[in-house]
Design a protein that fits this description.
Elements: H1 3-30, H2 55-58, H3 63-71, H4 76-99, H5 103-107, H6 110-122, H7 133-160, H8 166-178, H9 189-214
Helix pairs in contact: 1-3, 1-4, 1-6, 1-7, 4-9, 7-8, 7-9
Length: 220
Amino acid sequence: MDTEKIVRGSVIHVMNYVVIELMRFGYKLAVKNELADLKDLINTNADKWMRPEANEETGLICLDDDLDLLDTLDDAAVKRLMISISRILKTVDTYALISSPDIDELLEEEDLHDEAGGIFDAYSVELAEDGSYGNVLDNLVMYYTSIYMLLWYCITQLELGRLEVYDEALQFSSDYYSSEGHEVSLKEPVSGLLLELSEDLGRDSVLLEELSRGNLGLEY
């Protein structure tokens, strides 16, 4: 598979990984209260949470069903998290229309899945847990930083047209956030799409942080 196809196709897989990880946080919050009865049925600490090879371990059935279930919950943090997921899924759909109309074919490409998995893992951080609702919420807020870096990595790959751009992605994002008015020149329309997503998710993380501050010391 040529580099351009890997660069463009892996973005969709990276976004899917992020959605799945956000869903994990959604369940970690939900089993503290509204879904407490499912606590022993859902292993939110599975190393390969909700990935195909771990379905039996997690007890999860269908990604769409889990999204629907989380979408019915009243928890304010879960609701905000679901807004973020909706933004990402909408971006994936638009990205596919612009860049990769054969999305079903790309989703079946094992090479793209593996490439995206490596990128996702590179920006994954193990966060300390104490079992409380407030701690899960704090960790969720911190996880948005990983999402930003994943998005900037994807943007940098698209802009440079090559793989392995970890250093360049860090520099690119630093230049952006240190520039007056947060200005950046992008040649790829889909890069702008991912940058817009990053900004929208930034607003979501601010609201989640406000919820987190209001829940300091709160346990379910």
